[in-house]
Amino acid sequence: MKRIFVTVGTTKFPKLVNAITTEQVIQTLLSLGYNFVQIQTGRDFSKVEFDSVVSPPPEIKLEANSTIVTVNDKLTIKYDTYFENFEKEVEESDLVISHAGAGSCLEVLHKRKPLIVVINEDLMDNHQSELAEQLQKDGYVYCSTCSTLKEVLKKDLSKLRPYPKPDDSLFPRYLDKCMGFT
To answer: What PANTHER family does the record point to (predicted)?
Structure first.
């Protein structure tokens, strides 16, 4: 199973959630061989919307805390508000599509998963775009907006650079130097 995990973090980003369900993005996902999309919708997400041109209409099932949508018997999209184990969702995915929050981006990069960062253009100062654009400039992620997601999904994920592992000795060495121990 080829799997995508989509996360919007703790805030609302319905444009990203709904961008996944446009006919163009669904066709792109199918052409790339994806057959399961797990979407963390964030708080106050009320309605699963699909392009009116998705044909045949998707099958929608409601479970305890999830909405499961099947498109053409080929693509399953599961919506949940939050996940207890974000790390597990990332590890089980072949690709992560995330809002541009630093916490989500860095957690995915530390797991060495391909990452598409979608900038929320509706944020007042669009502060998340700086991090996303720098990570793209450094070759670690691809940046997108909701309107360019279809094109960005087609990019070669193997060209992304692995994010460097942290040097756990760096801070203790710095602290030792500041304290005069070295």
So the answer is: GLYCOSYL TRANSFERASE-RELATED (PTHR12867), N-ACETYLGLUCOSAMINYLDIPHOSPHODOLICHOL N-ACETYLGLUCOSAMINYLTRANSFERASE (PTHR12867:SF6)
